[in-house]
Amino acid sequence: MFILISLIVGMTLFGQEMVKGERVYLSKYVLSIGYGYNTPNIATTEYQINSPTHDARHSVHTEQGFDKNTSSKLAIIPEGEVSSIRLGNSNNGSQSEKITYTFHINSDYKPHTINYKYALVFHTTDSNTEERIQPKFKVKVYQNDLLVEIPLEANPYSKHINFNIENQSKDRIIKWTDWTSDNIDISQFKENDKITIEFESYDCARGRYFGYGYLVIN
Fold first, then answer.
1. pLDDT (0 to 100) of residue 27
2. How far apart are CA 189 and CA 174, in angstroms?
3. Mind listing the pLDDT tens digit for each residue in 29-52?
4. Residue 141: which region, alpha, beta or left (left: phi > 0; alpha: psi -120 to 50)?
5. Other beta carbons less than 10 A from residue 210's beta carbon
6. Where in the chain does DSSP place strands (E)?
7. Residues in the chain, pLDDT under 70
8. How far apart are the first and last CA of the chain?
């Protein structure tokens, strides 16, 4: 099973492809982790397959199930898809994770948009309301190493996000989203431009509350 993303001529694997029982790793992507509340900057090749939410910081999901932190209401893989990746986990400690894809605009094949789906899971409490320290999730677009767009930036108190809420205890409120579709317009870029797309997930700045997200990119 594999997740496909069509960006340039041919197909790039996002996740894994099983070829005669051998695993092909994320050769086209850069995985990063970090600590604190800054951009993840530690390169890693580590990820797991179908990992529990409290385990791997990068997990490729090929089996359907439901996220336990949402009272088993959020499907791990959205309807119509065969797999997803989870960025982050339900451990805290101010961990952060990132997956990055870089490609060049090719005149022979230039899609107008990069389409993706996401679902977010944030842990917070009634007393934890400072937005500047909240768990967060970001999508960033770079053109020739210059940041040009942040299509998505969300935390548990973002007013533009439609959250479901699980009041599990006074110290454990889970705010989560259903699967949402979005896209990145790349028609504005020029031939041979280097485009980098980053997806980032962060726990809260004080290391007490977790945040993570699920992704499908087409």
1. 60
2. 38
3. 789 999 988 889 999 989 999 999
4. beta
5. 26
6. 3-5, 12-14, 17-19, 22-24, 29-35, 42-44, 48-49, 58-61, 66-67, 74-75, 84-87, 95-104, 113-124, 136-143, 146-154, 164-169, 172-176, 180-185, 194-202, 211-217
7. 1-27, 107-111
8. 15
Extract the tokens encoding 167. 């009041």
Pair 5, 217: CB distance under 8 Å: yes
| Residue whose pair of structure tokens reads 């490729």 in the numeric block | 60
Is the distance from CB of 141 to CB of 149 less than 8 angstroms?
yes
- Neighbouring residues of 39: CB distance < 8 A, sequence distance ≥ 6: 96, 98, 200
The token duo for 125 is: 């409490």
Q: What are phi and psi of 165, to 5 degrees?
A: -130, 130
> Look-up: residue for tokens 């090719």?
106
List pLDDT tens digits, range 176-197. Answer: 999 999 999 988 899 899 999 9
Give residue 29's pLDDT. 79
Q: How far is CA 185 from the centre of its chain?
A: 18
- To which residue do tokens 């934890």 refer? 128
Strand pairing of 164-169 and 48-49?
A: unpaired
Q: What number of H helices and E strands is found in the chain?
A: 0, 20
